[in-house]
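Hypothesis: this fold can be encoded by more than one sequence.
Test: take the structure tokens below, design a sequence, compare later.
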């Protein structure tokens, strides 16, 4: 299991930078050699082409729309900064928000990338594979596992000593979400995700 993370990262890189779906599938098969659940992984990969076709011709939300969606606060955390278009180098639109609690170490950073368009569709498919790849590892420093919370499948990493949580998932098979929470347990972090009201993004995309 210790090499699974390396294989997953390789898959995402291939999905982002390769334009030919056939080549992606071929390299995916090679990348998963030696992994115990290859058949399940490859089965999930067969859905990739359909996801790409669905999103590649879709119109992405503008950076301005993403900025307007970003909430001013999340529970007791107040938004202290934001960035839009930081993923523009990959020809995708994105927004990042930073939220903090005064007089506390609690901090949360959320990044949303719209997976619509030729490049974004491949990224969205890669994130989808991450969520559907069952894995779990743990040592004295961190606990990493695939989880499902409120119908969202994500890769969750909890760092024990620093009490930090990271979530990576695709929402509605389109929006790529990365959450980094400082001094917050996984349950606390998921509560913040609930406050994000991600459904509004899908409503805006329709």
């Amino acid at each position: 299991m210790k090499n699974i993370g390396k294989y997953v990262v390789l898959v995402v890189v291939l999905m982002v930078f390769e334009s030919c779906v056939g080549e992606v599938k071929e390299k995916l098969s090679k990348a998963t050699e030696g992994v115990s659940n290859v058949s399940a992984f490859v089965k999930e990969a067969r859905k990739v082409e359909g996801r790409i076709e669905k999103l590649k011709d879709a119109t992405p939300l503008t950076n301005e729309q993403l900025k307007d969606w970003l909430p001013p606060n999340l529970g007791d955390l107040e938004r202290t900064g934001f960035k839009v278009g930081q993923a523009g180098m990959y020809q995708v639109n994105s927004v990042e928000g930073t939220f903090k609690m005064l007089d506390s170490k609690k901090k949360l950073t959320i990044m949303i990338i719209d997976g619509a368009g030729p490049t974004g569709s491949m990224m969205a498919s890669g994130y989808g594979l991450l969520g559907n790849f069952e894995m779990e590892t743990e040592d004295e420093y961190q606990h990493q596992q695939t989880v499902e919370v409120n119908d969202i499948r994500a890769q969750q990493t909890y760092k024990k000593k620093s009490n930090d949580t990271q979530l990576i998932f695709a929402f509605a098979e389109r929006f790529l979400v990365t959450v980094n929470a400082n001094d917050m347990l996984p349950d606390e972090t998921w509560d913040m995700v609930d406050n994000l009201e991600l459904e509004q993004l899908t409503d805006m995309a329709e």
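Residues 1-25 have pLDDT under 50 and may be disordered. The beta strands are 73-74, 77-84, 94-100, 107-114, 136-138, 142-149, 152-159, 164-171, 175-182.
Hypothesis status: open.
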